[in-house]
Amino acid sequence: xxxxxxxxxxxxxxxxxxxxxxxxxxxxxxxxxxxxxxxxxxxxxxxxxxxxxxxxxxxxxxxxxxxxxxxxxxxxxxxxxxxxxxxxxxxxxxxxxxxxxxxxxxxxxxxxxxxxxxxxxxxxxxxxxxxxxxxxxxxxxxxxxxxxxxxxxxxxxxxxxxxxxxxxxx
Length: 170
Ligand SMILES: [Zn+2]
Description:
Number of helices: 7
Bound molecules: zinc ion
Order of helices and strands: HHHHHHH
Structural class: mainly alpha
Number of strands: 0
Largest sheet: none
Helix content: 55-70%
Shape: globular
Distance between the termini: 41 Å
Radius of gyration: 18 Å
Number of domains: 1
């Protein structure tokens, strides 16, 4: 899925808990891509500029990507690593770190939305992972359906929060 949609899906469940929780979940929802492809884009500003100008399109060819990107992608897109981290945070803070569910949701959403030819989701890494032949998230019909669903869920959540606040203040 694209990074903005990841942030929006990650944040929506926390929207009713206030701006800070929403912002944290929004960022954590995008974090797996920010800490992998984001790093690549920051270190290759020329590539990003050409892409934004429309002089190149599509994802960067696998052969041009540095090896650290693949390692970062494995680390940030593994449910095994995420579960370990979630458990450790739970032990340290003595309560479930709910907002980190946004990161786990990112991985779950990536599994069916990546084809096996370009960064299939290594959701069990470092264990052997049977890759899923997903529907590429770049397909226009998928983008349309995904953002329509997001719009519907955000409108529903907004109406719920407004009604709750009205009940509270009356
Ligand atoms: Zn991702």
